[in-house]
Amino acid sequence: MHYRERRYSVTQTRIEASNGLGQQLNVLIVDDESSQRTGLAGMVKAWGMQAETASDGREALDKLDTFAADVIVTDMNMPGVDGFGLLRALRESGEMPPVIVVTAFGNVETAVRTVHELGAFWYVEKPIMPNVLQVLLRRAAAQSGLRNEKKALERNLQYKGAVGEMVGGTGRMQEIFSLLQQAAPSRACVLISGESGTGKELVAKTIHALSPRRSGPFVAINCAALPETLIESELFGHEKGSFTGASERRAGCFELAQHGTLLLDEIGEMPMGTQAKLLRILEDSRVRRLGGKAEFEVDVRVVAATNKVPDEAVRGGHLREDLYYRLNVFHIHLPPLRDRREDIPSIAESLIVDLNRKHDTRVSELSPEVIEALERHDWPGNVRELRNALERAVTLAGEGSVQLHHLPVNLQPKPAAAAVMAAAAAAAPATPPVEAVAADGEAVRVPIGTTVEEAEKNLILRTLEHTRNNKTRAAEILGISLKTLHNKLKEYGAKDSI
């Protein structure tokens, strides 16, 4: 049996169903009483749905071969194959849409047992109240939509090796996709490691999307971007008056992620004291707000990410060993882009689709020379750097094919790069030395002989001066993420202290 996939949108007066192709919600009604099933079918059709009927379980199973039911409404006591037999057959087939059981008055205990033991969605007593049935169909439709979207994502992983920007045909990436499918349905913690820009947050979002929690919130917090004095308030929340400036109660990330997934990015940057509190929360699922007197229970799946090598982070005193073991139930390590160059063309193709949508462009392909240039580059910034390079290229090309001259100069072969720079110099007016303008007419002069690393550091620090240490504004001016800016400043601080 195969059921078509749909996504559902519900209004108060009409229940509409669609998988994006305009298909309606299909309901199969199973009852041996002709008047009962005809009446229910008429009611369902009046709500804007498609309805088919069957007189017993055997006819229902035959109908399912040609009618893709999204929800089944079935009586339990019928001659031939009854409701119990129908549910068992559906469960054994592995293709069981939500089933609403119709039960006679006084048989509620049997109906409840059917729900728990045979996996029915819910039950409704005879005589059926239209408003009750409508609410149950609405909820069943929502569950069916989530189930079908999850199956679509799983098929995407299995057959295409791609989910959004996650693309990979290499053996290592296929192993990661397989591990994602195994880890997602569980409640176990996941530790994601990999260099900056490899897509750790995307992996976390994919785990959430494939999990039973996908209808709940996905909350991400960057532990490296918060000062030590604020991180516990952000994680656990605080009560009014718990510290200076706490003018009202505030929910923390654990509360905000209730029944969903919480991503703790850059877990190795979390203060050790906070790591100890986090470990306790992971053990007993209870949180206490700062300044609070009582703990409360939370239902949150925790995913952690780090750009450090986890074992080295433990040895270096950045990550508690006991917390590492608690988080490392599933460990997913993302390889750098330079170690899977054969994936670059397919990743680029996926990115171009998204960038065309973002910039309203119509780029259709990359020229062979561009693909060769992309595969030759080492990509220290990984997929993030690739996306930035393609965003520039797509914007410049506008439509058709991306050519070499659309790429940043550092990605072009040396003769081509030299020609571009020479043409730019010839077209420039006779002015003082080239300047990289930071903002509002202020400029950073780069003397000949300055390394790229020194120039980058100077530009970042001067931009921070210009914004009076407003990091968010500085990141916007520099065209980088706030997370990247924080990582750069930490890097400069570490080198200066050596």
CATH domain fold name of the largest domain: Rossmann fold
Q: Residue share in helices?
A: 40-55%
Low-confidence stretches: 1-23, 429-441
For the largest beta-sheet, the strand count, sense and barrel status come to: 5 strands, parallel
Give me the count of strands.
22
- The 3D shape can be described as globular
- Within the largest sheet, what's the order of strands? 4-3-5-6-7
Structural class: alpha/beta
Question: How does this structure look, described?
Answer:
This protein has 498 residues and is an alpha/beta fold. The chain has four domains: 7-147, Rossmann fold (3-Layer(aba) Sandwich); 169-241 and 249-335, Rossmann fold; 339-427, Helicase, Ruva Protein, domain 3; 436-496, Arc Repressor Mutant, subunit A (Orthogonal Bundle), CATH 1.10.10.60. 46% of the residues lie in helices and 17% in strands. The protein is built from 19 helices and 22 strands. A five-stranded parallel β-sheet has the order 4-3-5-6-7, with helices on both faces. A five-stranded parallel β-sheet has the order 11-14-17-10-18. Strand 15 and strand 16 form a beta hairpin. It is globular. The protein starts with 6 loop residues before the first strand and ends with a helix. Mean pLDDT is 82; it is low at 1-23 and 429-441.
